[in-house]
Write a structure and sequence with these properties.
297 residues, alpha/beta, Metallo-beta-lactamase, Chain A, 6-stranded mixed beta sheet, 14 strands, 24% helix
Length: 297
Amino acid sequence: MSRSNYPVDMEIKPDMKAFFDPATNTISYVVKDPSSSACAIVDSVMDIDYAAGRITYDHADRMIAYVKANKLDLEWLIETHVHADHLSGAPYIQQRLGGKLGIGDKITIVQETFGKVFNEGTEFQRDGSQFDRLFQDGDTYRIGNMTAFAMYTPGHTPACMVHVMGNAAFVGDTLFMPDGGSARADFPGGDAAELYESIQKVLALPDEMRLFMCHDYGPNGRDIQWETTVGEEKAHNIHVGGGKTREEFVKFRTKRDAQLDMPKLIIPSLQVNMRAGKLPPAEKDGKTFLKVPVNAL
């Protein structure tokens, strides 16, 4: 078994309900404290028809219905990072169920970077104040009687964090399923070497720790999956498993990232998610617009 400096409690086994969004290949979670009705929602989704400029909430409504049907008390909405491939549904859910919205404290770096990309004015706050809690590495918080903690795992973005709740860890885009490897590291503020080190932190958790993915794309035509373990990733992950070195990973990741297209929803996602899932302020006529920066990404 691996060792970690974080306060892991493998005896707590939270109840889990996953919600897959086929439009963005995102998996969102309702995570319940096994000893109470308290729960958290991790990486929720707001639906967008980008071509039509239309926002809907089918995915979020399914999660809301599940929480209500099971008489759960939502205490936290967790964002593992500022997603570039889907829009967060956290504010919509928070308005209907309550709870605190949390993200890593390095959100301020992302806000500063993309505030410039999207030419946001001084009214756009770059201090993370849109969120209720900014987590630092090792911070703990409670979901009912269950203590959760946040691990700082930069590399994909500067604000990535893995959230550990009992024997379950929600890895965001730090890792994919073993046959999916790892996420790209070429967005502004990303770094392949940092990503490798962050993955090693995750792999230092106990081998039995359950890992839950934020995305899965069904490599080679297999069915969509979202749960694995630290032990499985260490042994079989195609990018970092089997003792692959930092140098091997950085060389591969850098070459691979140069071949990737930008995510289809990166432009709306970043504008919304750096605002904690809220749309940009409406114009004087009450209409809301998303900007498209030309040759800026």
